[in-house]
Amino acid sequence: MKERVYRITVPTPFPVGNVNMYVIEGDNLTLIDAGVKTEEAWQSFQQQLRELGYTPRDIDQVVITHHHPDHVGLIDYLSEEIPVIGHKKADRWVRQDETFFQQQQQFFAQFLVECGVDQSFIAQLPQLRRSLRYACRRPLAGTVQEGDSLPGLPHWKVIETPGHAQSHVVFYRETDGVMIGGDHLLLHISPNPMMEPPFVGETERPKPLLQYNDSLRKMLRYDIAYCMTGHGEDVTDVPALVEKRLRKQRERAEQVLEMIKQGPHTVFQVCQKLFPAVYRQEFMLTMSETIGQLDYLEANGAVKKRQTGDYYVYEAVEVSV
Q1: What is the per-residue pLDDT across 238-277, written as a single tens digit (0 to 9) for each?
Q2: Which domain range does residue 273 map to?
Q3: Which of 4, 11, 152, 231 is least surrounded, with the fewest CB atoms within 10 Å of its CB?
Q4: What keywords are assigned to this protein (predicted)?
Q5: Cβ distance 290 to 278 under 8 Å?
């Protein structure tokens, strides 16, 4: 049977707007990503699925690109008999493991102190889980990793692309260069590399912006005809978008470096200057972006950090990025 791919777009309550899901007709019916857990999204999904001639009961498997709520929520509306497949690092998020969330809370409480964050902000940590009400609560039935084929879809290969999420993967059809890219490549916005606690067995915290840049460069190894995205339109010129994203990254890093040249800064002080209008409302988003910029500058030898009491400050080294 010739595979066909259909896009389904559903609304979300998030600033990013609508999210894309994909139905692949092959030897089985596969749903790639699963929207957000709202009744509005569920009704929209069912209507568009009906227009393709299917109902939710016809879905044989769900494969997720990553664990964020706007890509997994409708799994809770589907039969528990439908297997959900993703990267192993997604499981603790999609099953909403309480032990993990307690560890996450402890990790961020300590990490944010080291970033020089005010205690008033650290007291907000329990609110970090608010968006998870839009996510599913279902363990993975199977996992995929770099180089695997999707079950029942032998031409679709898994490529690991950590950065936006530690669990992020994309799917590449080798026969024609089509990619389903989740949030890795978005045409009009740059995905936020989000801070996460270390995975089981890891001792160092992830450095998501460095990972994201590496995952962007990784795309240049593949002959990608076009990439179907998690939000918005297809990307038809992947090399040009990769170069644009990396260039913008260097420009933002230069901006941060200019701040630090004025004197030592904590992560939180940089965050307040970078995002003065939104850091209170989008605290973890802006802190993730800030620590990413500082990781980038440190990796390039442009800044160094030193400990001062409970927190670290970053100082400029006289080099350019």
Answers
A1: 999 999 999 999 999 999 999 999 999 999 999 999 999 9
A2: 252-316
A3: 4
A4: Hydrolase
A5: no
